[in-house]
Design a protein that fits this description.
2 domains, 13 strands, single chain
Length: 383
């Protein structure tokens, strides 16, 4: 007879099983160290829980859940000042302000769970669905009714595992793609990458590099990050505030804590003009993948100096030089990322509203919440 899986929900990394990281070694974003960062510097409107799955007392799965309270947000993003934006804010505040998700709302991609080979993905997901019911009860006892439960950021291949009876009332949605950049085996240097571009995009590269003359790029260490913390947060906050849609804002100490805990696996690059910090970007080493993380910039300088595009080229150069296989450029700025060679991967999620009447209409409501992004895919490479 097949052994049913059991699960345990934890509030703190101190409670995690000792061998947690044996599974987490496949993804830094499910490691104890990364969870420690969240404990010390998660957004103020986020509560994290960690879930372990057991089969015959053996650890066979690990996962993260996040509860988001959208009522605590100062804004949902100020870029789109239109009727649709107002409708979105009204719906979110009144019907969907408490969201429970299996996954990580601060990242793009499948950073929800890892299962060992001794269980099927379908089994693991089914057990995580049971765990969400426990979490909903837990939040209810704290006076926080969960409106929406969602599993997020899965590829088309992952989605096949969700076709069970358990998810039949869930709405399958498609959100902005994850922009990923594959590093070719033959690229050993940045020049190899440049040589592979068509003339139009080589010219774009040269123009961007010329515009950035006078800007000094520096790798910042922990003491530098602490010293510049105020301006770093201002630069980040400016970019976040002008995004089309936000569900959280980072805490001021977030980058400092990241560097303290992940050390050399977390890279922070500052861009200086006339001695002043005018922009930064961050990278995370995750096995043979580089994950791009949050960035910030002074908008006036960014336009004039093509700073954002230069940051993308710098990320590509670093990743090639250090022998990484791919870069996760995540969401947003799809067209410009496409122009440097990133490709879109469609991402899916499953959601269910706690109110059965609203749940029947989620397929009509959700498209009104997701900002519409119109963009054109580019191919900068020679055929």
């Amino acid at each position: 007879m097949k052994t049913a899986l059991s699960y345990q929900i934890y509030e703190s990394t101190i409670q995690l099983p000792e061998n947690w990281n044996t599974l987490a070694s496949k993804n830094i974003f499910l490691s104890k160290e990364y969870f420690e960062i969240l404990e010390k510097s998660a957004p103020t409107n986020m509560i994290c829980h960690y879930i372990s799955l057991f089969k015959d007392q053996n650890l066979v799965g690990i996962a993260i859940s996040q509860f988001l309270d959208l009522n605590k947000l100062e804004s949902f993003g100020d870029r789109d000042r239109c009727v649709k934006s107002s409708v979105r804010k009204f719906i979110l505040k009144n019907f969907s302000s408490h969201v429970l998700l299996i996954g990580n709302n601060m990242l793009t991609g499948q950073n929800s769970f890892i299962f060992s080979d001794s269980i099927s993905t379908a089994e693991g997901i089914k057990t995580l669905k049971k765990a969400t019911n426990d979490l909903k009860s837990k939040f209810k006892s704290m006076g926080k009714k969960v409106h929406i439960t969602t599993f997020k950021d899965y590829t088309q291949k992952d989605v096949e595992e969700f076709t069970t009876e358990v998810f039949k009332k869930n709405y399958k949605y498609c959100i902005q793609p994850n922009m990923t950049f594959d590093i070719r085996d033959e690229w050993k240097s940045e020049q190899d990458y440049i040589n592979s571009l068509t003339k139009k995009y080589r010219d774009q590269y040269k123009r961007a590099r010329k515009k950035a003359e006078g800007i000094e790029k520096r790798k910042l260490h922990l003491e530098d990050i602490i010293r510049h913390e105020e301006i770093i947060y201002d630069l980040y906050h400016h970019v976040a505030q002008n995004a089309p849609f936000n569900t959280f804002f980072l805490s001021k100490n977030h980058f400092r804590v990241f560097k303290e805990i992940l050390k050399d696996k977390f890279l922070f690059y500052g861009y200086f003009l006339d001695g002043n910090l005018i922009g930064f970007n961050t990278l995370i080493k995750n096995g043979d993948t580089i994950d791009t993380y949050f960035l910030g910039y002074d908008d006036t300088v960014q336009r004039e100096k093509m700073l954002y595009l230069n940051m993308l080229y710098d990320m590509i150069a670093y990743s090639i030089n250090k022998g990484f296989k791919e870069i996760i450029f995540a969401r947003t700025a799809l067209e410009i990322k496409s122009s440097v060679g990133a490709k879109p991967i469609e991402m899916y999620g499953f959601m269910e509203h706690s109110n059965s009447r609203i749940n029947k209409h989620v397929s009509k409501i959700f498209p009104k919440l997701e900002p519409e992004i119109i963009w054109k895919e580019r191919n900068p490479f020679k055929e």
